[in-house]
Structures
1.
Amino acid sequence: MKHHHTNEFSKHASSYQKHNIIQEKVVKKLIENIHSNPKKILDLGCGSGAVYQSTTWAVDQFIGVDKATNMCELHPRDKCIQLINEDFEDLKFQKSDIVISSSALQWARDLDSLFQKIYSNTDEIAFSIFCDGTFKTIYEVANLKPFLPNSLELLKLLNRYFEFKYEVIHYKLDFKDNLSKFRYIKNSGVSGGERKLSFKDTKKLIAEYPHEYLEFEVMFVWGKVKS
């Protein structure tokens, strides 16, 4: 179960860029609120390069880490870029000016351990993390337990290592019908990679889902490591 989400993102890499509407909004907001112009960046869960493409300042070194090979193949190449095809939780960290992660840390198996590594190897952080309000109604209707982190628990954990400001934003993405919603979930790779419902139950959920939109809850975090 460790890497189901990685397999899902890799599987849908070719269609991901057509379906990552929310992720594009998220990375834009995340990068716009970084004002230190860091020269050495470590991007955890770099995917196809949204963070690098969103930076507006000159970078000396950009290290992008992602387990999904097919996503890394879509990442821009440049003389300052080093791509590491590896699970970011297994990474041997190098010192960086900032650790950035957009729409990836929610998949971590052990956030506490990961935050410890980040704390020891950088000065600044910028994270966007999808939280358990994402697909909230789907989980309520299907009577399933959300698999994404809870925002309050996440804040407690972040507070052990970082001094930060944060913002939680709830997005809604409209669709013409329920089938389109579930195709979006599949093609964007954000399902977690596990089939949690039978085909019959999925069909029932598609028929009974009450809203014209899908819900997303994202926590944005900008800060520095505690001294």
2.
Amino acid sequence: MLPGGRGGKGNVHFATSTRQAPRFSQDGEKGQEKEVILELKLLADVGLIGFPNVGKSTFLSRVTSAKPKIADYHFTTIIPNLGVVKSVYGDSFVIADIPGIIEGASQGVGLGIQFLRHIERTRLLLHVIDVSGVEGRNPVQDFNTINEELKNYSEKLASRKQILVANKLDVMQDEEFLKQLETLAKKENLELFKISAVTGEGIDELMNRVTETLKELPKEELIEIEEKMVYTLEDKNEFTVTRDGEEYVVEGPAIERLMGRINIGDNESMHYFQKVIRQLGIEEELIKKGVKEGDTVKFLEWEFEWYR
């Protein structure tokens, strides 16, 4: 967090019984500046992860009203898609279809890092795995590869709760891949749901479980709340007085704040300046250091001739 400078005061603030029509105001302090690069991250409760062409977009189109582009080739989805799921109980949640993650995504292969960023805020991951065998993929190897990429990108993301989704039952050629995934699920203590995003088989059971799981998972804070900045009056110890040859140099945070609010060319503002340096104890410290009439006293880049 970059704190802004304390605000200035209009001339009405300096109206007193002896100065009923003040002709000077006080500038505000300078704030801190910083160049930042902002990243847009999707806010979703559930993220769909998995290799390209495992059926994530088809699944999203079936459980929500979203209309992602669906085609039978890899990287059909090139931007994340969002959809809202409404349960039979009337509650709802947001699900995000993350474009296919591939090996090396955590190091930026393909558009991996851009995709991984979008699931940082999700509370639950549905890991969609193709068990059809059509493309000759090994579901256990796919599971390990994707989770390794999550781990390389963020330990926190890798520890997020996952539900395994064995997809494409309608075109499954060999049950051996499914059995391997079932063994893996037991080993990793993960829930496994068998579905077909095309026919809708098993989807109702899966979505009911997702709804129940989200109720159990705490919502993550979207921002990290930093300690509040508290402004106080200038601390009497926030300045130093040193002698540099024939000059007396007054420095410190209190001086920087004070000089940032003074109009050197205005007589009334200078009267205010003299009052404040007495209140802060600067005048007393200068006298202790041996300042005399006619000596030069330097406040930052401004030089003054000392007199009382």
